[in-house]
UniProtKB/TrEMBL annotation:
Gene3D superfamilies: 3.40.50.2300, 6.10.250.690, Winged helix-like DNA-binding domain superfamily/Winged helix DNA-binding domain. Transmembrane segments: none annotated. Keywords: DNA-binding, Phosphoprotein, Transcription, Transcription regulation, Two-component regulatory system. It comes from the Bacteria. This is Two-component system response regulator AdeR. It comes from Novosphingobium sediminicola. Coiled coil: none annotated. Residues 143-244 bind DNA. Pfam families: Response_reg, Trans_reg_C. InterPro entries: CheY-like_superfamily, OmpR/PhoB-type_DNA-bd, Sig_transdc_resp-reg_C-effctor, Sig_transdc_resp-reg_receiver, WalR-like, WH-like_DNA-bd_sf. Residues 143-244 form the OmpR/PhoB-type domain. GO terms for biological process: regulation of DNA-templated transcription. GO terms for molecular function: phosphorelay response regulator activity; transcription cis-regulatory region binding.
């Protein structure tokens, strides 16, 4: 049995980042409103979609921090939404659905769902699941990633992604370009000399400092092509710095 709305008040004041946004994809109005009440009371902002097409459109335009996703939707099902999102994005997704068979649950997890909640649910548990998934995702990201503006650098996988409205675009960088970019990104807005950047990327090289200019020129062009333009700035008399857009 679903607890009454009044229980949502116990979540007020919890330590949740106010900027985080949850997209609730649910076509049943009563359930969507119940979820929205609890999610807002937990300190999140809320958007709602009622169909497959609307969910995909809102995800692309709003870039929420998480989706609560039903399976039975007009225009398809939640797995269609999940499959589309996973082609370009890594947004955390919790399935919230009346479908409780193991085949569907396993299929959802294989496609990329982060958790699976079966209706009827306890809204308090939904909030705890949201918090747990976000903690896990944020913990993983903080250990292995550097984030500056729309630029996301995975230092373990050596993947650089530019995030835009059209999706995540992965940059193909050389090892030297990657090393220079990571060095700049770890201290955004700080101006680094050419010798510092050369030492970070090619510590055993006898190359002249001006070699950095060639690498930076190519790196800049790749950033512009991916949609992360004007992020590398030349600092007269010193070298270069990375700025957040």
């Amino acid at each position: 049995m679903i607890p009454p709305y009044s229980m949502a008040k116990e979540w007020r004041g919890k330590d949740i980042k106010m900027a985080q946004r949850i997209l609730i994809v649910e076509d049943e109005r009563e359930i969507a409103e119940l979820l929205a009440t609890y999610v807002r009371s937990a300190g999140f902002e809320v958007d709602r979609a009622v169909s497959v097409a609307e969910a995909i459109r809102l995800h692309a335009s709003q870039r929420p921090d998480m989706l609560l996703l039903d399976i039975g939707l007009p225009g398809g099902d939640g797995l269609d939404v999940l499959t589309t999102i996973r082609k370009r994005f890594e947004t955390p997704v919790i399935m919230v659905t009346a479908v409780h068979d193991d085949v569907t649950k396993l299929s959802s997890l294989r496609v990329g769902a982060d958790d699976y909640i079966v209706k009827p649910f306890n809204p308090n548990e939904v909030i705890e699941r949201i918090r747990a998934v976000l903690r896990r995702v944020e913990g993983q990201a903080s250990r292995r990633s550097v984030h500056v503006g729309p630029l996301l650098i995975d230092t373990e996988a050596r993947i650089v992604t530019c995030r835009g409205e059209g999706g995540d675009i992965r940059l193909a960088l050389t090892p030297t370009e990657f090393a220079i970019l990571v060095h700049l990104a770890r201290q955004p807005h700080r101006a680094f000399s050419r010798s510092e950047l050369l030492e970070s990327a090619l510590p055993d090289s006898d190359a002249y400092d001006r070699v950095v200019d060639s690498h930076l020129s190519k790196l800049r062009q790749k950033l512009v092509t991916a949609g992360c333009s004007e992020m590398i700035e030349a600092v007269r008399g010193i070298g270069y710095r990375l700025i957040a857009q």
